[in-house]
């Protein structure tokens, strides 16, 4: 699995090199600095938090109005630690994602192969589908997806093996990185209850481990309360900065549809909203399959993620969220082993979008 991972990293380096020549514009004679093509969008928030803290570079600004608190502290803390060693913020972010991604793909491969005679092949398929997925550029950039998966996938693997202490500890790591860790924790509780049906004495001994993921969340909310007087300041920052105030899914759908097709946005953002619609469609299909197959714990995780992402003003960042839906990549891998055409269709139709979105991101366009 790691050789597939390394080859795709080399491919993305090649794509980003080309983008460094394209990003300055058609009349440029010199390329952009290669590292600069990775410093896009949310990266600026992560670096600012790591470098100055949530409030350190905002003198005179009401702490309750600082939008950086929308981002959980796990990745900025890791970024600060690695920067102390390598001395360059962008390199530090890329290294975190590189190492975290390696951990994540190994765990995904083992999850996909659990209980199967063709386990190694299933694992390689799942890893390949993830790494060639349209939004895979975010696994390489200095973003939270790889670090989150490096905690979440081993946590789920530990839970499937009924190692609840390890699962709880790893899930606690995931909750420091993204709010998605809360959805993972909820799924772990469901998995725990299903694993202990009829054996409640054992459940009582292991149940406290399922509470571990709540501790980082409680710590961050307490920090926000102490600094801003508002424990939900992160959510209110999301509402101010990213239009994540509550709307019913049909309202969010209509707003996204208009942004995608009614010429209200520039073309770069319009295609991004089209990708949002496609990603939500994939998520709804995945959730339906999980429910039909009675995969209750995974359905809770995907369902909560979908609810969170489809109840804002519009659908936003759903393509990136698909990277975190490990049941999707495992399900596609297993399906491809039963139907050979699935692998060919994916590689010929879906995988090329990975290159397109990688060029979009590294050249400064919104890519999900």
For the residues shown, what is the average pLDDT? Answer: 92
Spell out the helices and strands N to C: HHHHHHHHHHHHHHHHHH
How much of the residues is beta strand, in percent?
Answer: under 5%
End-to-end separation: 26 Å
Percent of residues in helical segments? over 70%
Q: What's the number of helices?
A: 18
Broad structural category: mainly alpha
Could you describe the 3D structure shown?
The protein is mostly helical. The protein has one domain. It contains 18 helices and no strands. The longest helix is centred in the C-terminal third of the chain and has 26 residues, at 267-292. The radius of gyration is 20 Å and the shape is globular.
Write the layout of secondary structure elements.
Blueprint: H1 2-22, H2 43-52, H3 74-86, H4 89-113, H5 119-131, H6 137-140, H7 145-160, H8 164-177, H9 180-195, H10 200-206, H11 214-228, H12 233-242, H13 249-261, H14 267-292, H15 296-309, H16 318-322, H17 326-338, H18 340-362
Helix pairs in contact: 1-18, 2-3, 3-4, 4-5, 4-7, 4-17, 5-17, 7-8, 7-9, 8-9, 8-11, 9-15, 13-14, 14-15, 17-18
């Amino acid at each position: 699995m790691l050789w597939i991972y390394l080859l795709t990293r080399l491919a993305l380096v090649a794509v980003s090199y080309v983008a460094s020549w394209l990003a300055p514009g058609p009349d440029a004679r010199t390329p952009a600095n290669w590292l600069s093509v990775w410093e896009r969008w949310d990266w600026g928030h992560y670096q600012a938090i790591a470098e100055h803290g949530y409030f350190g570079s905002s003198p005179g600004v009401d702490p309750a109005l600082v939008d950086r608190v929308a981002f959980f502290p796990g990745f900025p803390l890791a970024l600060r630690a690695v920067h102390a060693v390598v001395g360059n913020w962008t390199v530090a972010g890329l290294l975190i994602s590189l190492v975290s991604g390696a951990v994540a793909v190994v765990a995904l491969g083992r999850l996909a192969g659990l209980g199967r005679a063709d386990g190694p092949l299933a694992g390689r398929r799942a890893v390949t589908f993830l790494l060639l997925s349209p939004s895979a550029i975010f696994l390489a950039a200095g973003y939270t997806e790889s670090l989150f998966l490096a905690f979440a996938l081993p946590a789920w693997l530990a839970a499937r093996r009924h190692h609840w202490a390890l699962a709880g500890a790893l899930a606690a790591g995931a909750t420091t990185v993204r709010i998605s860790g809360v959805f993972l924790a909820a799924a772990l509780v469901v998995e725990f209850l299903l694993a202990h049906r009829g054996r409640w004495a054992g459940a009582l001994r292991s149940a406290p481990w399922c509470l571990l993921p709540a501790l980082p969340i409680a710590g961050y909310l307490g920090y926000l309360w102490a600094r801003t007087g508002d424990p939900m300041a992160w959510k209110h920052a999301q509402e101010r900065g990213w239009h994540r105030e509550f709307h019913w899914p049909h309202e969010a759908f209509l707003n996204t549809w208009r942004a995608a097709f009614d010429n209200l946005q520039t073309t770069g953002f319009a295609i991004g909203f089209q990708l949002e619609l496609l990603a939500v469609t994939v998520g709804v299909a995945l959730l339906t399959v999980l429910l039909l197959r009675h995969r209750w714990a995974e359905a809770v995780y995907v369902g909560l993620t979908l609810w969170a992402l489809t109840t804002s003003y519009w659908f936003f960042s759903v393509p990136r969220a698909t990277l975190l839906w490990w049941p999707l990549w495992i399900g596609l891998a297993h399906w491809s082993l039963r139907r050979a055409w699935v692998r060919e269709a994916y590689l010929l139709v879906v995988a090329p979008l990975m290159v397109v979105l990688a060029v979009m991101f590294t050249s400064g366009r919104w890519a999900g």
